[in-house]
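re: ur question from the group chat, yeah i did fold both. here u go
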Amino acid sequence: MAFGLITAFVALAIAGGVAISYVAGSAAVLAFLASGYGNYLAIMPQRIFSQIDVFTFLSMPLFILAGEMMTRGGVTGALIDLAMLIVGRMKGGLGYVNIAASVFLAGISGSAVADAAATTKTLVPAMVDRGYRLDFAAALTAASCVIGPIIPPSIVMIFYGALMNVSVAAMFAGGIVPGLLMALFLFAYNAWCARREDHPGGAGVVLPPVRPTIARALPALLIPVVIVGGIVFGVVTPTEAAALAVAITAVLVFAYRLMERDRPANALRHLFSEGSRAVESALMLTGSIFMILFAAAIFGYLIGIMRLPEAIAATVTNLDLSATTYFLLASAIMFAAGMVMDVTMALVLMVPVLIPAAIAAGADPVHVGVVSCLNLTLGLISPPFGGILMVISAASGTTYLRLSLAILPFLAVQVVLLVLLILVPDLTLALPRLLGLVN
């Protein structure tokens, strides 16, 4: 009864617009009181700081800052132009551009919501002007943004790796193939829709100039090479790679202003102006994330006291479930949770409870981690409370209801890929094994 009231409190608070960090903290404290372990709250401050004293967490605010600077400094626009240059003249070309741009941005920002904000105002109006339905353009943008947290660097993978003590480098390597497969699945669906709805495309489409576009975009593409290559091959830690991403982005923003024949003094002034706004946005988002981390520490302590993972593992053993069967069931639960909860909140609540039993049953920790991150990220485009849907609905001008209906076919395609990744672990583990990151 008490836990039912807590669930109702969380649902009402989220529906009422209360910040997720406040909801998470309040729910954590209420869960302790409802379970009869309220006396353990006295040592919560020590427990919280010991749980978040993880070096890897330092990379999250830096990756967030890099993404903010890219959006404000023109790096995002350069990558979108490159995608237009490559696939813009295919039938349904702007749909392919939308997906390809998300692939390029995924290698830099690591945030689905950041990618959604960056691409919606640029690509959705362009698609509508060329004859695409507004709800289709907005839904395709939402679906392609899910690629962001799967192709490294990924903020949610960093969070997962620190929370579950799994190698971030191995998870980054494991996310590359699933992310590219998601892009291919979306390409295939976009091709089918282009034929069915006669989307525009062909030789008459105006493309951006070749040389300036390549000159602006290629340096930006070096960022994921530095980040992923440095982490995977052990040259830098995730935190050092994030710092490099910020530094390279700052140089690119300054260089872009010079390429526009701006004076160096003005370019430097622009860099500091946009940089200060990016720092402000990154600090606000980072503060919210770390408040959720505080709640994660509280929930994790309660889960440990109640020995829930051990109980679930014992149930799996008694029912003689295979690792794959159990992981399918756990994934269904996580997907349902992601439909009504923030990604970070769902990760905090679901992963420590459900995932240890899958690993104990024989599942690979990296495979489970990558697929779980993809699963929970799909919640961002799942009605009724999809975070990306809310951002794109507001930015594009389409109603939330229309967008929620339009996203369903795209979501079905991505769920098919999710199930395929669960059933065929080698799709996720082949690259980490090749690089010697997993056995």
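okk and heres the other one u asked abt
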Amino acid sequence: MTMTLALWLVLIIPVAATVLILMSAGKPNQREAVTILSALALFANVLWLTGEVLSGTPGEITFLTMLPGLDLAFRIEPLGLLFGLVASGLWIINSLYSIGYMRGNREKHQTRFYACFPIAIGGALGIAYSANLATMFLFYEVLTLSTWPLVAHKQNEDAKAGARVYLGVLIATSIGLFLPAIIWTWTLAGTVDFRLGGILAGHVEGVALIALLALFMFGIGKAALMPMHRWLPSAMVAPTPVSALLHAVAVVKAGVFSVLKVMVYIFGTDFMAETGASEWLVYAAAGSLTLASLIAMRKDNLKARLAYSTVSQLSYVTLGAALATSFGVVGAALQIAMHAMGKITLFFGAGAIYTAHHKTEISEMDGLGRRMPFTYGAMLIGALSIIGLPPLGGVWAKWYLMSGAVDAQMLWVVGILMLSSLLNVAYLLPIMARGFFKPPAEDVAGKGLAEAPAFCVVPLCLTALGCVVLFFMAGDIIDLIAPIAGMQ
């Protein structure tokens, strides 16, 4: 296979999968087989691309020239490699989980549900491999539009209202802020290509530089930096596999990935460090991660608590990028992978609980861990990874972020990160503690296991195992990111 064909397949496989899924309407076994095989094919293609790029083959292709010097093009670099592997790999597990969840809850409109997923993952990969801001923006919008029907899936009033907020906030921020930032960058630098070291040094300074950075950071609404976060908890009306897609696989990770890529390849970390233009963003991200954690503590609904947890955890990536240090960039990149694995485990657990017992409120789940030990055990591992305890992957992200804060001479950020970990403990561990140690409610009491279907339980156990595996694979991720972070 040639590199050109492999890059085309990044687009062709999701489109072909959607067509075949639509053609399989009324044939659930065939539809789900197409979903799984498409996910495997896309991941295999991403793995091949990764191997070729790491061996030195340029991963570049121009699909279309829109204006002189403005192309629709892919160029694969280390951050894109990491995000591409996370998105395509977790789609496989999410697809397996979806079978158990959708069948277990007898959800309607399953063909439409499955058909939207490949386009969303294709949009995420388009963002991952984008060669410039124009390409990134196009696939950013594809991702928004393809996930909107998933948020509105249940078609009740709550789902429609949540979907309106979701679409409204993300379109308003991208069109009103992100697009003007791209146009402004074009007028300043004469290009919107992603280049290591950035393209804006010598073209903008002072208040204008800070204003341009603010347009990008708040315009990339998928990063959920407060106050642009409202779409995320509103989207919790969607089925749990969609919540997992939004919070772990595609949407929010596409947001913080875009933030990190813009900081590294458009502004340049050295330029940001020299000018101090991103210092305000450190405060904004620190405030966002702390406030979201405090809100999460007050939520009794399990998915709502996890949603605000995600708002907080995403701010780690923005914080790492804003520190404008080598360790900060590495910590931000690690957080993309580590949080994805931990948070998808927690959302899978929430869906398994709903499927098996139709419980949504934490206060109703007392004693449930005794009847769902696999689900609750996996959720405990995911929670401990997010908290940042070894031997789980989340510890490395926090370690490098703290090291980045020390490098930037912002020791107060270390304190904020430590406080955040304590808040993580306060709002995550009580979920499992109530499940294992509280006396069970009458409708929970019973003998024997009462787990969700195997298609729900096995994927969440696999992602829990992934939290452990990532602890030992952190060195490989660091080696991948180190060259663009200035550590080599």
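fwiw on the second one: Residues 278-488 form one domain. The chain is about 75% helix and 5% strand. idk if thats what u expected
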